[in-house]
Amino acid sequence: MAKNLPRTMKAIGLYKYLPISDPNSLLDIEIGLPKLQKNDVLIEVKAISVNPIDTKQRAPKPVIETTPRILGWDGAGTVIKNGEKSNIFNVGDEVIFTGDLRRSGCNAQYVALNEFLVGPKPKNLTFEQSAAMPLTAVTAYESLFERLLLSNKDAGKSILVINSAGGVGSVATQIASNLGLKVIGTASRKETIDFSLSHGANIVLNHKNDLFPQLADNGYENGVDYILVNYDPYPYWDTIMQVIKPQGKICLIVDSSGLVDLKPLKDKSVTLASESMLTKIKYNTEDLFKHHEMLKEISKMLDNGQLKTTLNKILTPINAVNLKEAHKILEEKTSIGKIVLTGF
Amino acid sequence: MAKNLPRTMKAIGLYKYLPISDPNSLLDIEIGLPKLQKNDVLIEVKAISVNPIDTKQRAPKPVIETTPRILGWDGAGTVIKNGEKSNIFNVGDEVIFTGDLRRSGCNAQYVALNEFLVGPKPKNLTFEQSAAMPLTAVTAYESLFERLLLSNKDAGKSILVINSAGGVGSVATQIASNLGLKVIGTASRKETIDFSLSHGANIVLNHKNDLFPQLADNGYENGVDYILVNYDPYPYWDTIMQVIKPQGKICLIVDSSGLVDLKPLKDKSVTLASESMLTKIKYNTEDLFKHHEMLKEISKMLDNGQLKTTLNKILTPINAVNLKEAHKILEEKTSIGKIVLTGF
To answer: Which residues form the Enoyl reductase (ER) domain (chains A, B) (predicted)?
Structure first.
């Protein structure tokens, strides 16, 4: 039974796309509850996580919204209502979720989402620990299993995870390590190096310096089998072309800031995959149901300890002041793991 | 028993890298026989095939060779001697072979090759029909099975083969068609369209016109699952980004003449693989033995009719005049299937 729903809810939204230093870049607002589509669940939001996709969507541009834009595509909460044809979850189920960029996000007390973008919350984790995970874990999962096509058969092979202390990097490090791969992370500060080692990296190189000599010093003078680039690939292009092994595979999750030369790919017959967890959602692909299955699997791995939450900072409550603070940290690109906001 | 070998052999070689219109671009010469390395077989060359790699290697550049450079990495012949540790073939075996760019090629009466670059000649084909196939068939095979990772499970899916009447295109068309894929070829002249249809293309689009509306007219308005680009991808970049399906895979076998924007890859989580049949050879990869296995499989498919030779033109004998003619046709980019030279 759905509880009686309020007519309005608190949310953090924007009308103008402004620098985060501008007081109006994100605003506390009161708006109507989102409308349920037939395959949706309505979720009462308990904790939200902030990702680079939020800051990219909020980035300054000359657009004015007539209804407030609500960001946020990552969090945890409780199902409070089912859409007409939604039947995976029951009212009262505790869940984790990602989101759909074309719809209002979860920086609000309630969010409506296609049930395939929702999975069970790990029982042994808090809402905050859980909220840190969905978007980055799905991205890491798709990168490793659907793009690089890793499996247990790859045990013993090597993967270079560039920016391994970030959100996706620290989940990918854990999953690759569980598969038995040698994980070579990259970071630059003591805290990020330690964070990455604690998530299963075998070694962590300093990405402020040239990576090739560091790889050679660690016995990888013949290169690595796989590379996951959790950063603009443009400044790394020559390096990744140099250190990938013949017939190796590279996965990019961040847009390149410049045009690239594809020639070096051919000499080594390299495969370059690009990953966005939004693809299945935006194009409503036939395998969209796998998004739900991945969230279920991720939840199980978090419960049985195969995966640790990458939560590193909690801000409370969920309001414009704290959300601006989180965006600011992300834009400075110095964050470690994930930032979560909790409580209204 | 090896027959008595002559001390010298006929070959076609070059000292200077000149336009094909220059009489000295390729010369009839008489040189010593190639030296056998321990894993080599010595092959008496019966027929050779010409590929874009030959014209690229011969392309004008300010380099002068002190010993003549012999091109040619594709052909058929008879094993006449084994290297110390070579044991796959017996003297007298009829074989097909590719080649190693770092060594003297097969535009000569004899060629020495690592035995992994050699496979059995199809019994039901002539030397000429056989010589047309090794390099393009290995490239097509690796493109489809090792880069695009196609299998019988992909029956019913769609593959766009750009330039489907060329050497690799016409083999790839046959293999993809055998797997049950819908093959959409591209060509521009009546002869090339017919050639492509006769090799199994379901439809052939005109690559002189925009491909997207033609795909839409044929029921592919939502794009294709796979693309094999047997042409400079640069002028096709926007088109292939537009017509590839979400999570689709593209394989390139030709270098891009310009820098490209990787951004569109991410929106659809596209995988872009690059294929060169020289990679395993140049880097002496652990799976180099697969090169031999592929040649064996290709030979079997040619014998049992799963694959037809793409031989389209025979020039005889193997001499500088005919080789220049073949290079000239390839450089004009109007060739259909393969050109083979035969007989000394």
So the answer is: 21-341
Beta carbons of B262 and A263 less than 8 Å apart = no
Q: Which residues in chain B have Cβ-Cβ distances shorter than 8 Å to A287? A: 247
How many angstroms separate the CA atoms of A212 and A215, rounded? 5
Give residue A160's Cα distance to chain centre.
Answer: 18
* Cα-Cα-Cα-Cα dihedral sign, residues A270, A276, A277, A279: negative
- Any B CB within 8 A of A138 CB: no
Q: What is the pLDDT of residues B237-280, one digit of tens each?
A: 999 999 999 999 999 999 999 999 999 999 999 999 999 999 99
Q: In a mutagenesis test of the B interface, which of A168, A247, A254 is the best target, namely the one with the most B β-carbons within 10 Å? A: A247
Please indicate if any CB of chain B lies within 8 Å of the CB of A147. Answer: yes
Q: Which strands, in side-by-side order, build the sheet including A8-17?
A: A27-32, A8-17, A61-70
What architecture (CATH level 2) is domain A137-274?
Answer: 3-Layer(aba) Sandwich (3.40)
Q: Is B119 on the interface with A (CB under 8 A)?
A: no
Please write the tens of the pLDDT for every residue from A60-72.
Answer: 999 999 999 999 9
What would be the CATH architecture of the domain defined by B8-133+287-342?
Answer: Alpha-Beta Complex (3.90)
Residues of A in contact with B147 (CB under 8 A): 269, 271
Which residues on A lie below 8 Å from B230 (Cβ)?
none
3-state secondary structure of A112: strand
Q: State the sign of the Cα–Cα–Cα–Cα dihedral B213, B217, B221, B227.
A: negative
| Predicted local distance difference test score (pLDDT) of residue A310 | 94
Closest residue in B to A233 (Cα) is: B262
Read off the pLDDT of residues A191-240 as tens digits, 9 standing for 90 and up: 999 999 999 999 999 999 999 999 999 999 999 999 999 999 999 999 99
Measured in angstroms, the CA of A142 and the nearest CA of chain B are apart by 10
Residues of A in contact with B279 (CB under 8 A): 246-247, 267-269
Where along chain A do the CATH 3.90.180.10 domains lie?
8-133+286-342
Supply the angle between the helices A134-141 and A167-178 in degrees, to the nearest 10. 50
